[in-house]
Design goal:
Elements: H1 2-48, H2 51-54, H3 57-66, E1 71-73, E2 76-77, E3 83-84, H4 98-102, E4 107-111, E5 114-122, E6 130-138, H5 145-185, H6 201-251, H7 257-285, E7 294-297, H8 298-315, E8 319-323, E9 331-334, H9 336-353, E10 357-363, E11 370-377, H10 410-420, E12 424-428, E13 437-444
Parallel strand pairs: 8-10
Antiparallel strand pairs: 1-6, 2-3, 2-6, 4-5, 5-6, 7-9, 10-11, 11-13, 12-13
Length: 452
């Protein structure tokens, strides 16, 4: 690329120099010829007034030697347009304007580098006959041609040096960027592009983008490893229980077979839930999760989800308070099944940390259309630095878990589902002096079928 840039730049400069030099040469040559033509005509007119003198051969020879005249003759122009006598070398009758000469007018011109002038002198003794003073001279080469050549050569050398510098300035950072991206593609996420303070802004932007991409990929790789380690732990725990109790039952060493089978069933269901959540996240990432977005009554969705979870919550000795489900339908833009899944996951998360109670509220956000669903527990709360991370699938909650529930991926699925339905979800903690956490989901409003 560097060689191509240099060749292109130098070729462009050489072309411009060639066109400029040729144009200058042509214009200068024409100006020189015109000047010589004017001077020669003036000299011919002056000699015409001394026609008796210049007809002498010796005088013509002297004039040719001292006047830089290549050819000088005085032929006679006859009435029929012919010439008696010779014209100067390299000059033909057809080069002269015979009609103007017959009319008594001087004429001049040039033929290649040969400049000529012809001035008629009427012969009184022979009407219709004219002496014609014909002078020729070779025009000198245009002045400054050597100087133009030297300037062009210097400009060409300078263009080579400048093109080499410019090409290097552009290709060096591009080569570094190419090397870094090749390293990243091969798995070396520590590859970086050095950014110099004097690099062009576009090069700096490109280098920064590549470095940011590499840093993000490296962070994603670390997060992926942490996620896999976390999931491996989550999978190993129920599998260990299942295998242990199953072996105990098979060996006949289980003290309470019914309890062992019950534990196996519970851990199996937990394992199945974890696998289902992993599949849900994979489908969300692949954008293959189906959504039927439309008007959904948020009050009814909350009531249905709470009814399904009330036995487990009260069976654990917790109280469940539900507010806002009475009244006219509160329509939100959502998918009914996915919204119930969101509420279930939030209640399940609250169930893990609640000390004594869980509260669910559904309302319309002040000043806006839509629905707000809030699930609150009276657990230990969430430390402020972790508030923004609780919905990250790779986040591991270090709060003390009061009871087992779910797969640990529920909040990540909530964030994905709510975002896909055009809503927002956030965590608020603490909600009281003793702690507690509220998960708040805001959904856009939707018109009813009658309004639409």
């Amino acid at each position: 690329m560097r060689r191509r840039l240099v060749i292109s730049f130098v070729g462009l400069v050489a072309g411009v120099l060639a066109l400029t030099g040729l144009g200058t040469f042509v214009l200068t040559a024409r100006a020189t010829a015109a000047s010589e033509q004017h001077d020669l005509r003036t000299e011919a007119e002056a000699l015409a007034h001394q026609s008796d003198l210049v007809t002498h051969p010796t005088v013509l020879a002297i004039l040719k030697s001292i006047g830089r005249i290549e050819g000088a003759t005085i032929p006679i122009l006859t009435p029929d347009g012919g010439f008696l006598g010779n014209l100067p070398a390299h000059l033909a009758v057809t080069d002269l304007d015979v009609a103007s000469l017959e009319a008594g007018h001087a004429t001049s011109g040039h033929k290649a580098r040969l400049v000529f002038a012809a001035v008629p002198v009427t012969l009184p003794a022979a009407p219709g006959y004219h002496y014609v003073v014909v002078l020729t001279r070779n025009a000198p080469p245009p002045p400054g041609a050597g100087y133009v050549f030297l300037v062009a050569a210097a400009a060409l050398v300078a263009s080579v040096l400048l093109a080499t510098w410019i090409a290097g300035r552009f290709t060096r950072p591009l080569a570094a960027a190419l090397s870094a991206t090749r390293g990243i593609a091969e798995g070396d996420l520590d590859s970086r592009v050095d950014v110099g303070p004097h690099d062009d802004p576009e090069i700096q932007t490109l280098a920064t983008s590549i470095n940011t991409m590499a840093a993000n990929l490296a962070a994603a790789r670390v997060a992926e490893r942490e996620f896999l380690l976390s999931i491996s732990h989550e999978l190993r725990t129920p599998l260990t229980s299942i295998l242990g109790y199953a072996e105990a039952v098979a060996d006949g060493t289980a003290d309470d077979v019914a309890r062992a089978v019950k534990v196996i069933g519970a851990e199996g269901r937990r394992l199945n839930r974890l696998v289902d959540d992993l599949l849900s996240l994979a489908r969300l990432d692949a954008r293959s999760f189906s959504f039927a977005i439309g008007p959904v009554d948020a009050r009814s969705a909350v009531a249905d989800a709470a009814t399904g979870m009330r036995p487990a919550i009260e069976g654990a000795g917790l109280s469940l308070a539900i507010t806002g489900t009475d009244g006219p339908p509160l329509l939100a833009r959502a998918d009914a099944d996915r919204l119930r899944q969101v509420i279930t996951n939030l209640v399940e998360n609250a169930y893990k940390f609640a000390r004594t109670s869980i509260a669910i509220d559904v309302s319309s956000p002040p000043g806006t259309a839509g629905a707000r669903i809030t699930v609150t527990d009276d657990g230990p709360g969430i430390a402020q630095p972790a508030i923004e991370k609780v919905f990250d699938r790779r986040y591991s909650d270090d709060r003390a878990v009061a009871r087992k529930a779910g797969s640990g991926l529920g909040l990540a699925i909530v964030a994905e589902l709510v975002s896909a339905m055009g809503g927002t979800v956030r965590a608020v903690s603490p909600v009281t002096e003793a702690g507690g956490t509220s998960m708040v989901v805001d959904l856009a409003g939707a018109p009813s079928a009658r309004d639409a």
